[in-house]
Input
Amino acid sequence: MIRLERATKEVRMKGVRKMIIDNVSVTFPRGKSIGLLGRNGAGKSTLLQIIAGTLELDRGRIIRQGKISWPLGFQGSFQGNLSGEQNVRFVARIYGVNTDELVAYVAEFAELGQFYHAPVRTYSSGMKARLAFGVSMGINFDYYLVDEITAVGDTNFKRKSQLTFKEKLSNSDVIMVSHSTGTLRDYCQTGIVLENGQMTYYDDINEAIDVHESNMKRH
Amino acid sequence: MGRRRNDLLQYSRPTLTADAGGLATKSEPPAPRFVIQRRDTSLNYLTTHARIVTAFVIREIATRYGRSPGGYVWALLEPVAFIGLMSLLLGSLGRLPALGTSFTLFYATGYLAFSMYKGMEGYLVSAISSNKSLMSYPKVSPFDAVVGRLILQGMTSCVVTWVIIYAAMWTTNQPITLQWSCIVEAIAFAWIMALGVALGNTVLFFKFPLYQKIFDIVMRPLFLLSGVFYVPSHMPHPFSDVLLANPVTQVVVLFREGFYVQHGDTGLDMPFLIATSTGLLFVGMLLFTIFPVARARD
Output
């Protein structure tokens, strides 16, 4: 369960202020995946960071029960001079999981072959993405945060990733930002529409999508 | 640190890899058998951050000297080469050092005390900016990066100091009795000061990029003004007071008291050193706590 209580967040960027959420109270129940909808710049990614805990609220508080992931497929943390394996070890240490098991899991999942032991700077972007996705799948979370799911790899790898992720979701939930309504319908049961600093929770993702689409038509 | 005790983990059911239709397709990789399942009690909180700090230290050792061959050995070689070169240069001027008979020891004590502060401060101030991407992990707290570097730099500089001091003591024919209390105190105050300045500057550099430029320029002559290759109290009167008002000079003076028996006033002012170093730490921590710049967007 994740609950926002009278939460307010305003982002200030080079003098420009933008109210993301204004005094919002909402509860996301465990067991249902949530799609986050809103126009460009509404603050969906910011909200995801608040949920992750990498961004602080200005006012109000957030209560998290359960383990929340970093954004799925995040690869910014990979140090180019370290090998893929060393980078995986680092994440394992941070999250307190067995390093050898995670290293073995990612080795099998990411299918990097010899490159697994080569510095990440030598990787192609596809290899980096496979490594990142493998690490995300290797640690079990209660909530997976997804900011625009991106398919990586060839057809086989895509199918495997999708299968693994779907299987994860039998025990975990996903909080997903996407502009693709098809993807949202595919993964999420409930939805949130972010508009003008207000956040509305819908039990049914289809309803959320309808509201979002009518919002978009108004402007 | 990598292995957790099994009782902290909750094992999930093993995954079946057989295909429903019996078709010979490639089997899925096994689902990991571990689940993070711990409550954030304060002790767990501590062990979690101890674990993250350890991960940072290991990562820094592997990456600090990046692609240069030899890697972390350079942390030792650099200061050895620098001190050797400088003492050779200064010694070739032919005079006796201001204290003792060995230029190498005199210069090494000054330089090592100075770099206890300067090396630490310079390394800590970039702890957040060079690990910015890791702040995307919710588990990582910005302070972990700072503590990780503090521990690594602390251990490194202690080893470096130990090796160089004992090597330098071969170059003098006088017997030396080390006053460990002075040495340890000097190192502690240097680190406290460095941590304070680095934490404060992490915030200020982010908020005021111009201040960073000014700070860099103003601090450039610090090496000359910290009593590294002279004895501040031997300087002419008004000038020596100005030099001794620099807390880094005080660190150097205190450190040297651990090596040289000196008669007369060395200019050491312990209350002043304690007040400035703890004061800087307080202000630094205050700024770092109030302004969470580590995860702010550029």
Q: What stands out?
A: The longest helix of chain B spans residues 142-169. Residues 1-29 of chain B have pLDDT under 50 and may be disordered. The radius of gyration of chain B is 25 Å.
